[in-house]
Amino acid sequence: MTPFGTKEEMPPEDMYVKMQKQMVAMPLDQIMKKVSELKTMCICPQCPTNNECAKNAKETLFCSTGRSFHCITENKGCLCPTCPVANQMGLKYQSFCLMGNEKAQRFDAMLKM
Ligand code: SF4
Ligand code: SF4
């Protein structure tokens, strides 16, 4: 049996995994700066699924923060595949405000394999 946490159990190192490793290795102030930069690039505010409640609560960057806390409940389409953050961070999934962040959706998909 392979011990937990060995390279054999690591997910394939695609662009998302590489970017997450880079982020984890950054000092906290640089992580905060990067997150602010990504927030300014997020196009969720223009999405038909987004709503006033989410805007007022300043909910954004769902691909990182996960599901909308209590505002978004209905999927009216998702702009994530066209977002520059998706390209830069190597995201595979979408509808993060309803389905959970990229990390959660990848984990869910892994459990179904
Ligand atoms: S991929 Fe989606 S959730 Fe992530 S920043 Fe872009 S629009 Fe926002
Ligand atoms: S995560 Fe996707 S569906 Fe949700 S608000 Fe952002 S662009 Fe729209």
Structure overview:
The chain contains seven helices and no strands. Mean pLDDT is 92; it is low at 1-5. The longest helix is centred in the N-terminal third of the chain and has 14 residues, at 28-41. It has a domain at 43-113. The chain has 113 residues and is an all-alpha fold. The relative contact order is 0.16. One iron/sulfur cluster binds at residues 44, 47, 49-50, 62, 78-80, 94-97.
Sequence of secondary-structure elements: HHHHHHH
Gyration radius from CA atoms, angstroms: 15 Å
- Which regions have little confidence, pLDDT < 50, spanning 5+ residues? 1-5
Structural class, by secondary structure, is mainly alpha
What is the helix tally?
7
Biggest sheet overview: none
Write the layout of secondary structure elements.
Layout: H1 15-25, H2 28-41, H3 52-56, H4 62-65, H5 84-89, H6 96-99, H7 102-111
The site of one iron/sulfur cluster (SF4) has 13 residues, from α4 and α5.
Gist?
With 113 residues, this protein is mainly α.
List key phrases describing it.
single chain; binds iron/sulfur cluster; mainly alpha; 113 residues
